[in-house]
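User: My collaborator and I are trying to settle a disagreement about how two of our proteins should look. Neither of us wants to argue from intuition anymore, so we agreed to look at predicted structures for both before our next call. Could you fold the first one, then the second, and keep them clearly separated?

Assistant: That sounds like a sensible way to settle it. I'll keep them separate. The first protein:
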Amino acid sequence: MFFERPDSGEVSILVHITIDSESERDDPSEFEELALSAGAMPVDYITGTRRQPSPSYFVGTGKLEEIAEAVRAHKAELVLFNHALSPSQERNLEKHLNCRVLDRTGLILDIFAQRARSHEGKLQVELAQLQHLSTRLKRGWTHLDRQKGGIGLRGAGETQLELDQRMIRQRIKSINKSLDKVRGQREQGRRARKRAEIPTVSLVGYTNAGKSTLFNNITEAQTYAADQLFATLDSTLRRINLPNFGATIVADTVGFISHLPHQLVEAFRATLEETASANLLLHVVDGANEEHTHLMDEVNAVLREIDAQSVTQLQVFNKIDLLPDVQPHIQRNGEGKPFRVWLSAKTGEGLDLLEQAMTELLAGTQVREEVLLRPDQARLRSQLYAKEFVESENIDESGNYHLELRMPEAEFSRLLAQQELVSLNPSAGEEAQQFWAEKELTEKAKDEQLAEVNAAKYCVN
């Protein structure tokens, strides 16, 4: 029911009204891109200004007649509003214009329905559509099932509208049950990655910023990437090996947009939890877009809504191939940590700098040490090579391996403390013992603090 779409586009009239009382205003050009992404064929774009929306039609009577004239002149099948319309406004407009009317939320839901490919994605979109539809059921059939007096006129006791509402509630309940299973499976996968100490890097950003192109170049995947809004809908995870760090999971997610419908945020919460639980967020920004600062604010607003604002964030300014005199480089903060990387996902320029910045943020402080491995430690040597920790190697007359390593300090200290490595630096062993002693004290303090919080909750209850 919800995924059958016509192959050809629909002749459409676009309407954008600037409301003086609104502090945040939608971009008219972005709305046109949304319409094209949905497969619409815009033939006219009607704009205007109002102090307040009209309760009945959203627009005034003069603008309403202008829209009706455009519909008749172009034989339009659809009128798209770049605003959120109430159910009554939508019904009144359809009755007056004699064609289908869709608001911004309905248009975005339609695009999502076209893009959904996985079973989970289709469930999430259908849930959002049903939540949106439940307030827009029309009363066309209510007379068919009313109770009346007299023989042969007693109905079932429920109007058709009530039957529709009950079926929608049952379907929403069924979808939520299925999504709870998906959420459990995702949580199980996250726990497995945590046990294996494999961090997750999640790509976030405004729609059409180039996330999927960047994802394909980093992971050598073949996910769908196109120059259109919401080209990616289904979340994709791939495993990569970062130089001098090791295995990492990279997740490509759905793009954000200004005034993202609340139904979509709720429906895609199972998918967006991957973002909230990530170790690092790559905030991909279209560096060639003059409005990139505003778009970044919109993305951060959605991140706050899904409780992901505290995750470490690395800004990735993409599309430098469209900017004159901009070379790939890393920007660092006052502490010397990377916070922004300039690159081009399309040409591949700067991808090595991105991997370097990701390694620094995930690994923390790195050390360069020379160690000794015995001949019977070939398995450990193989693991060090697999994680690309080894920079050089020599073998002495006894068959021992002399390795020069560059790796995270925590990993190096753990191997030293477990006596799996013998460092040729005399002070390294003492530093490792001190590192792990301080870490144990920190973990103990956290456990004690958590116990106090739980005890306080228990007393309150």
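The second protein, kept apart from the first:
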Amino acid sequence: MEDLISIREKIRQMAELALSMLKSTFDGFMEHNPDIFANVLKDEQFLNEMEKAITLSLIGTSKGKITNTDKKNIMLLAAIVADLEQIGDYIKDMIERIEIKIQEKLLFSEEALLEYKHLYSVVEMALSDIINSFKMDNKSFAKRILGDKERVDKLIEKYRKAHTQRLMLGECDPRAGNMFLNLMDFTGQIFHHTKSIARSILKIK
């Protein structure tokens, strides 16, 4: 039976892999380089394997002689693992859309590119905070993510309105605009799962 300390370390490694995947996907998007995505998709498969292995470890630990607090912590850690696996799924969805964008040579306007880069940077920082929360056993990093919730939702709303204005003025290709909305939505979902992880971390005793 594996102890919770070693399982937490594996969850931190899983979070680091998810962040690495997100960064590489962003690099592929910025560089219009689909070759980068092959390794990300391999990592996504490994992320799924980690999710299964860690979940089995948590189930095994839950069957031992443990306290009620440990049982609650196991449930929270299992939820975190599930959220990380979902983040991997959204990264995979992002890659599919970016590959189409590259193949069809669809370009974002300069404004849209700046908006997406900003949104991405906020989400990347949030996922980094999850890792630091585990690495340093410091919940202040998780609290910071929850404080960003309203800012991220408002950013997406603001950038959607700006996109609609550009579309109405004929300043962007509608097909590229659709890709822009997809990337914003997927990135927003990654943040929402990151936020869910932060909430779980704050409940761990």
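Some points you might bring to the call about the second protein. The mean pLDDT is 93. Residues 4-203 form a domain with the Methane Monooxygenase Hydroxylase; Chain G, domain 1 fold (CATH 1.20.58.220).
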